[in-house]
Amino acid sequence: MWVGFPGTSTQLMRRTLLILPVALLTASVSLRADALLFGLFESYLESLRKQAGIPGLAAALVGENGILWERGFGLQDIDRSIATRPDTPFHLDGLAQVFTSALALRCVEEGRLDLDDRVASFDRGSAEANATVRQLLTHTSMGPGGLVFSYSPPRLAPLSTVVPECIDDDSFRETVANTLDRFAMRDSVPGPDAVSLPDLFDPRTVDRYRGVLARLATPYAVDKKGRPTRSSYEATGLTASSGLISTARDLAEFDLALRKTVLVTGDTLAAAWRNPISATGLPLPHGIGWFVQGHNGELVVWQFGVAEGKSSSLMIKIPGRGLTLILLANSDGLAVPLPLAAVDVNASPMGRLFLRLFVS
After folding, report:
1. pLDDT one-digit tens code per residue, 316-341
2. pTM of the model as a whole
3. What's the Cα-to-Cα distance from 288 to each of 99, 100, 112, 275, rounded to whole Å?
4. Which residues of the chain have pLDDT under 50?
5. What domains lie within the chain, and their CATH numbers?
6. pLDDT per position as a tens digit, 79-117
């Protein structure tokens, strides 16, 4: 005998029970489709990794509420046959500037910094004294006829002075460390020399940093025949565009903080992801902290890092779809010899694969 719920007709409940299996079937089909898509992406990614001669690669796809898919490919240490994992630490190199730009934009929102402030106002001795904060973050400078673009992450160096001042911290490293802790980025280290600063960090934190650095991916220089040779990292400290160490899994936490507007508001990010205008009235390729371009009607924001013969990284966001790709490698194969600084993420085979599978 059918027993109806209070206030619910028997006919409606029967209809609901008929619809429910269809809904569950649709969800099941969707999950299988996602699994097939992720499997296809994984297979192609592994093939591209081998073609690029990358010994070890960590990858993650981040959705609206967390990691949708993550994998480690190849070896983070060839001599010891240690497999790469999503929590393997890597040098971020120039990718670190997305972190710096978010901190600077937080200062702007709080009214403690203006993007049109000149560097001379807080660092008179800088080679960039006449540049504005906006120009540093967009990699532009004022030419005879207007703004011109030239990509150079080291130009961000003066921001390591102004950011801690407007956040009321003693140093840029302290600001970065506090932000890493805030987002539970436990496998990230604010510079490879952080373990030598016991006056700045407590013993427990130093021990944690030491443990992360012990798992740091070994860097490799790879020749034209794909043969890897162990190399060494150049970055020994922390700057506004180098020295930050993190994992694909930790960067997913940073990405979620951005999309949930924990660091800065959505309006601020939208403004940051607009192209500056050149002297000839054309859009320049780099917004505040990120390259900005379009693909099939979708906004694409992205950034990369590279230390030649050592490491590379790539992060691509599709804000309209709530999707982010994070790639970290222990060779320069994600960026060399690709012309990424020529401002099109499609120059990267892995970036192109991501866009074709998930955006096209």
Report:
1. 999 999 999 999 999 999 999 888 87
2. 0.90
3. 11, 10, 17, 9
4. 1-29, 31
5. 87-307 (3.40.710.10)
6. 999 999 999 999 999 999 999 999 999 999 999 999 999
Q: For residue 266, how far is the Cα from the chain centroid?
A: 17
For residue 343, what are its two tokens?
């401002």
**Beta-carbon count within 10 A of 309 CB:** 17
Q: Helix or strand or coil: residue 70?
A: strand
DSSP E strands, 64-145: 67-77, 82-83, 90-91, 140-143
DSSP string of 74-91, one letter each residue:
EEEETTTTEEP-TT--EE
Annotate 258-281 with DSSP letters as a single string. Answer: HHTTSSS-HHHHHHHTS--B-TTS
Give the whole-angstrom CA distance, residue 203 versus residue 100: 26
Interacting residues of 329 by C-beta distance below 8 A, sequence separation 6+: 49, 54, 56, 57, 58, 90, 311, 312, 313
Q: How far apart are CA 130 and CA 143, in angstroms?
A: 12
User: Which of 287, 291, 289 lies closest to 347, judged by CA?
Assistant: 291
Task: Scan for tokens 């569950």, then name that residue.
Answer: 24
User: Angle 97-109/159-167 helices, nearest 10 degrees?
Assistant: 40
pLDDT in tens, 285-295: 999 999 999 99
